[in-house]
């Protein structure tokens, strides 16, 4: 199991090394989706700001990975 996880991490890191802005851009898009949903939708998805939190975490992780790679 540890060997397959290591292989998965190697593939992901080689994929993201050439696309450094992919994760931060995806995070910004999720934040914009959350902003737009505030005006058109209602429910727990809007009240919890799920896309805002996911987008912020994804963007921060993307910036840290871009710096490391």
Task: Describe the protein.
With 69 residues, the chain is mostly helical. It has one domain. 84% of the residues lie in helices and 0% in strands. It contains 4 helices and no strands. It has helices at 2-17, 22-40, 44-47, 50-68. Helix 2 (22-40) runs antiparallel to helix 4. The longest helix has 19 residues, at 22-40. The chain is elongated, with a radius of gyration of 15 Å. The mean pLDDT is 87.
Topology:
Blueprint lengths: L1 H16 L4 H19 L3 H4 L2 H19 L1
Number of strands: 0
**Topology pattern, helix = H, strand = E:** HHHH
- Structurally, how many domains make up the residues? 1
Regions with little confidence, pLDDT below 50 for 5+ residues: none
Strand portion, in percent? under 5%
Tell me briefly what this model is.
The chain is mainly α and 69 residues long.
What descriptors fit this protein?
69 residues, elongated
């Amino acid at each position: 199991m540890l060997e397959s996880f290591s292989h998965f991490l190697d593939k992901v890191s080689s994929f993201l090394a050439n696309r450094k802005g992919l994760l931060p851009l995806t995070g910004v898009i999720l934040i914009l989706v959350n902003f737009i949903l505030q005006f058109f939708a209602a429910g727990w998805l809007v009240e919890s700001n799920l896309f805002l939190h996911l987008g912020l975490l994804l963007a921060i992780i993307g910036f840290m990975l871009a710096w490391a790679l």
